[in-house]
Each structure stands twice: as structure tokens, then as C-alpha cells.
Sequence to fold (595 residues):
Amino acid sequence: MSEQPQILFKYRTVPGYDNIDVYQKNEGYTALRKAIKMVPDDIINELKLSGLRGRGGAGFPTHIKWNGIPKNWDRPHYLVINADEGEPGTAKDREIMNLMPHMLVEGCIIASWAIRANNCYIYVRGEYMEPIASVRKAVEQAYAAGFLGKNILGTGFDLDITVHQGAGSYECGEESALMSSLMGERGMPRHKPPSAPLPVISGVWNSPTIINNVETIATVVPIINIGGAEYSKWGTERSKGTKLFTISGHVNKPANYEIVLGTPIRKMLEIAGGPLNGKPLKFLIPGGSSTPLLPATDQYLNLAMDYETMGANGTMLGSGGLMFFNEDVSVPKLMTRLMHFYAHESCGKCTPCREGTNWLTKIHDRIMAGGGRYEDLDLLLDICNNIGGRSFCALGDAAAMPIQGAMRFFRNEYEALIPKESLSKRVFTPLPIAGAVR
Amino acid sequence: MFSEEAKTQLDNLIKKYPKKKAALLPALWIAQEQYGGYVPPEALREVAEYLDLPPAEVEGVATFYTMYNKTPVGKYHIEVCHNIACMVVGADDLIEHIGDKLGIEKGDTTADRKFTLSGAECLGACANAPCLMIGPKYYENVTPELADKIVDELSRK
Ligand SMILES: Cc1cc2nc3c(=O)[nH]c(=O)nc-3n(C[C@H](O)[C@H](O)[C@H](O)COP(=O)(O)O)c2cc1C
Ligand code: SF4
Ligand code: FES
Fold:
């Protein structure tokens, strides 16, 4: 793994790295000391040079988001960290919080300084009680060391960090639902442009708010340390730097790995120890359960793992949850499990997603129980089309896309589950679905 | 009833947010702890009073989130991830194995109210699958043997 530069993970395995003294002996809080002497615009400019894109799923350039913060200062500004990590297949933020919480805290202080926020909330999913304890300890140590609180490092800058525990909801990872949840409401998404302003203008408590993923904020630390231009030497033209990937499923060494963007999937498979017990692989999911699968053939294994290449091949890099599956896995069975998940997590606010995920689940259950009809396959795609782009938030798309990917490459596996008599005769299906999804 | 200590904890929490209402999720966590692992209607009423919120609003929020238990659960709540990364490396068998050992089905609580067994959605430990959580603690790369050991140890407590 030597040829993969370890920018974030450099000191991850140093014993006691979660403690402030060990952290400081290993370049800890040097980026903060540097950044606090810079004007906010210069920090944002370093991010621009680095090419850093959000690591939470959408890959939006971080400097553009930060630059959107209003320059006049009539209301408080907030930094909110998305540590909800609910996307199946993704387990990287947990590792950051457990093993290197100070890098997250240092990143939060630098980001708050850059966007002139005096309050930062780290919203962590409810199940992560161990990571919460780890980050809370780091926050306390940072207060004691004078990196948090009033007049940080004698600059007159004040900042408080609060670790906020969620309570079990995938939808709360969606940034506007997260804001609702942080304010003590049900975790439902809020209106977005054009009907409402972006969070940078009016986010939590109607104030300018930046929401970033844990990994995004942690990456700010090495970027300030080595400089944006240096960071951007890694990666491809538009997918810069390294990213954490959770490699799971049928590989010999499943783990979190820091990988240069643009690395071929085949190489990542090799880094993760190759196929489990040498058994041939059937397919892979590149970036978390919402991203459409790809067959594990030469054509796809040779693809470079970056935002553009994944997009050009009908899928996404997402949050970096790379999962490999061997021949033992039935695609329809896997999708059935996933549909139960999405139907369970749909917040119920909008009809296409609430009804659509329900129908996708019911039809999958029917097919798996041997009662599938030939029409069901097109019906599944029809429902997906009715969800995709028509839902209030991206959870709807997240549920539809995996099915579209599965049908694109493994429709034969679905067909094999449909009883023969249904395949030969065209059965009339009433159309409750189209009406129900609209 | 909240203990004095819990009330102090709550008062400190409220100060961390510009609006009192934002302390609702943390307050419900405290309530769940105070009421022995779940939030009965009295707990919701107490939270509502403390935060000056309509009881119906507190109830609406509490029911939205799966981690606030509306009914009592066993002393040890074993939640086994059954999402895809865990499923393909044996999560379903693991759930069955633990269920057989405890003599219950997924979703049930043992007669002595010591164990509840549930399936859970992705716990964010996919690279160490299959995994489960019991209270705040995660167990990773769980084999049937490890599950037996965990259950045996907790049974003795
Ligand atoms: C249903 C849904 C769940 C999401 N879950 C997460 C999550 O757990 N963590 C995260 O960082 N982003 C998640 N996102 C993406 C966020 O909405 C948002 O894009 C991200 O936090 C922005 O941070 P970034 O720019 O640093 O990536 C989710 C999006 C959707 C639609
Ligand atoms: S798509 Fe609609 S129902 Fe689904 S989670 Fe988003 S708002 Fe809720
Ligand atoms: S799928 Fe089980 S922990 Fe992620």
C-alpha cells in the first residue's frame, strides 16, 4: 500500500493519537496556528487550490460553499458537521471520530474561523455512542488547551463546539433534515431553492450555516498544513486528493483505506486483499448502497475511482462505501433487503418516495416469494421513474437508483424468479401504482 | 421524575443552543435514561414541561426517531445489523443463532426481560461485518462463538 499517500491517515495508528498531547507531537494543531494568522479569504483560497470536494456524497466543491457565506455580519453564523453516517456501506467517519477526533476538532476550528462562526454543532448519529464519547473528550481537551472557548490563541476569536446526538434516522443525514433535527424537530427536509434560500444564507435558526461532512472538515487540516497546491497534485484533473473508502463485502481485508482519487477499482480490490478466499466476484457497489451497482468484469474493474468516471458509467462515487459481492449473492435478494431499508427510512413527507418505496418493497417481496409476474419487472422501473427526480429530497432517488442499476445488469436474475406460467401469458395488471405514486 | 442531577444536566444543555427547543433530542436521551431505558408518556410530559413545548409536539418528535423506545425493552438490547454488507457475510444466520440461544424471535424480549433481540440498519461498521450493538457498545466481526460468549457473559450479570 506504500504507493498510496496517507494524508489523513498518516498518524492514525500512533498509540494515543486520540489524546491531545500525542496529537500535538504529530503535527497536531499546527494547521490551526497557521490558519488563525490567515484572513478567511486566504483559507478559502487554499481550499480552492486544493480542489477539495465534499466527502459526504454529493462531491460539491467545498470552497464554493464556504464562499457563499455572507460577508456582512448581521446574524450569527453556524458550522454544522454531518456525522450522521447512515449510508449502508460507509463506515469512515466513525473511524475518524474514534481514532483521530482531534483532527475533526481542529478542522472545525479552522472552518469556523474561515466562515466567522462562533458556534459549531457536530451532529452524530445516535448509535455512535463510542465516537461521541471520543469526540467529546477531544473537545474538552481542546478547551483546556485554549483552542476552544474565548479568545482562542489570543486572537479575540471565540468558538464553542457542541456534540449533538441524533436518535436513529437515516434521513437526518440529508442536510436540511439534519438542520430540522438539530433544532429539535422531526427529521424532515426543508424547502430548498428556488422556493427557499440555501443554508449558507438561511440555515439553522434562520442564520447563515455551513454543513459539511466529517471527512471533508478533517481534510481541511492537512490541506492547510501542506498547502492547497501540494494537495491538488494527487488525484485526477477534477477529482483531487485522496479519499477514505470503506471497502467491505467479499474481500480478504475489509477495512477503511485512504486511496488517491482516480485509482483503478481493480487496484483497490488488490489493496483490500482481493476476492474473499479467491472466489470470483459478481458485482460491486462503488459508493454506498444508493449508488448503482456495476458488474465485476474487466471492463468495470479497470475503471478509475473518481467522481467523473463513476458518473460517466451511470453510477456515483458517493460517500466511498465500496462493496464487493461474489457469486453467492442474489441481486434481487440484496435489493429486497435494501428496499426494506429505504421504505423504513422514508420520512413520509412526500408521496413519490413514501408510496414508491413501499411499492418497490412489496413487489420485491412478492417476487422473492415466488408470486412475481412478468409485468412486475417493468413496473419496478416505472415506479423508479416516478420516484426519481420527483421526490422532495434525494432519499427518493437513493432508493430508485439501486433498482435501476440492478435491472440494467441483472434483469435475468429477476426473470429467473418469475414463475414460468407468468412469463408465457400476459397477465392483466391493474394500475394502482401510477395513481398511487403521483 | 427527573433527578436533580438530570435537571442540572438539562439546564446546561439548554444554554448551548440559541433556542430552548433544540435541546429536545438531548432531553429525550436524558429522559430515556431516567425512566429505565424507554420514554413512557410521563417522561414525554416532563420533557414538554421542562422545555415549554406542547406535549403533542414532543410526542411527535419522540415517535419519529427509532432510538427512543416507546415500550420497555430488555436490560440488554441486542441489535444486529442486517443491512447488505453484514447480510452477505452471515448476519441473518447470526440473528437466528442468537434467537435460538435466547429462545426468542427477532423483535422479542426474553421472559425474564433480560434480553431484547432486534435487527438494525447499517451501524456504520461495514468493514467489520457482521456487527451488533448492545447499549453503547459495538461488537464487530461477530462469529456465532463470539455471540455465545457475549450472551453468556451478560446472562451472568
Ligand atoms: C438521504 C440522504 C442521506 C445523507 N446522509 C449523509 C450522511 O450521513 N453524512 C453526510 O455527510 N452526508 C449525507 N448526505 C449528504 C448531505 O445532504 C450533504 O450533501 C453533505 O452533508 C454535505 O457535506 P459535504 O459537502 O462536506 O459532502 C445525505 C444525503 C441524503 C439525500
Ligand atoms: S424523498 Fe420525500 S418522503 Fe422520502 S425522505 Fe425525502 S422528503 Fe421524505
Ligand atoms: S451494513 Fe452492517 S454495519 Fe454497515
Summary: The pocket of flavin mononucleotide (ligand 1) is lined by residues A 54-58, 60, 82, 84-87, 171, 173-175, 211-213, 216, 393-395, 398 (CB under 6 Å).
